[in-house]
């Protein structure tokens, strides 16, 4: 094997790992539909609702009661999220909320859910900033 072939194998392996790590599911993550999230919020289960979008995105509207902790700042702010309550995450489309769930799971959070499809799939009330 020459050096170029080894480099290509390593590069392809990295690409496969990167895609898998970004799009694979998170163990124990509950995927909620808009209806399921509305029901959970109406039940007053004590869930903490976290919007992981950036502040400029939140200005376009957010789910009432949500706390904005952007994914870009989550690693330095996750201590603000109680570990003893269910945590529901959402973003624009559902990708960043899965990444946030992965971060929280690695830091000991167990009761994690996210809004499947993000706020784009949300059919409930939206508060404008």
TrEMBL record:
Q: Which residues form the signal peptide?
A: none
**UniProt organism field:** Paenibacillus whitsoniae
Task: Report the residue ranges that make up the Rhodanese domain in this protein.
Answer: 43-127
- Protein's UniProt name: Rhodanese-like domain-containing protein
Question: Superkingdom of the source?
Answer: Bacteria
Q: Which CDD domains match?
A: RHOD
* Pfam families, per database record: Rhodanese
PROSITE patterns (alphabetical): RHODANESE_3
